[in-house]
Amino acid sequence: MFSLKPSRRMARAAAVVLAGAACAATLTGSAEAVVNGTDATQSYPFMVSIPVTGADDPTFKGVCGGSLIDSQWVLTAAHCVDPTLVTLDGTVRIGSGWKESGGTVRSVAKTVSHPGYRNGDGTGPNRDDVALIRLNRPVAEEPIRIAGKPGRPGTPTRILGFGTIDDVPDPTQWVFPDRLQELDTRRGAVSECAPGYANSTRLCTISQVPRAMACNGDSGSPQIRRDRKGRWELIGVTSGPGAPGVRCSEGPGLYTSAPAYAGWFDKVTGRDG
Question: Could you say which of 2.30.30.100, 3.40.720.10, 3.40.80.10, 2.40.10.10 is the CATH number of the domain covering 1-273?
Fold first, then answer.
């Protein structure tokens, strides 16, 4: 998700904040600018870029992703707003295919992390890794609908992100693209991720392209699929690697299931009443 100087604490923060696919074990859930992905082939008005700074090293500038799910609410990973890892820069950019231009910029009014969130710290998957960001004002961009179900294993999906495009463990060598990246993937079976990683709330994700997957900087970014009418709907939030000790480009990714937390989202945003 971002690039810090290679201190032990910095590497931990970078790894955790960038989760989103199978990355190096040193990164607690790291997801690249979608390693070996391609420039976005279309507009994604719900895509959000979230600038962050290292909590212990303000010289460490990175990014997380998010999805606009309401005119004033953004869904991201809880580790992207974890104050022990990073500090939000205070604004987010909505609806642009460029990391630092276009779209609509809004200030962050508040963040709400799931009460069950726990960071895996490299020893296992992040748990309840979802958070909501309330914008200071609504935006005109169209939010993405959360799917009723994530779909069966084998379902074609797509992942998006502004993460690093170089699959290397040293944060100082990460390269973040200006353009939004996309990669065609599929829902994986629980057995395609490491034991104890995927379950009903964590989706195993497999690339349809060799040596490609989300990585550092893709944390919080969306995994989407087409509904019966061909419209994109949200199924997952980039959380981390799907197996320990595997490079981003060589292993499965792990995504928090958006449908599994739809009730919590509605409660926080006030849409359940």
Answer: 2.40.10.10
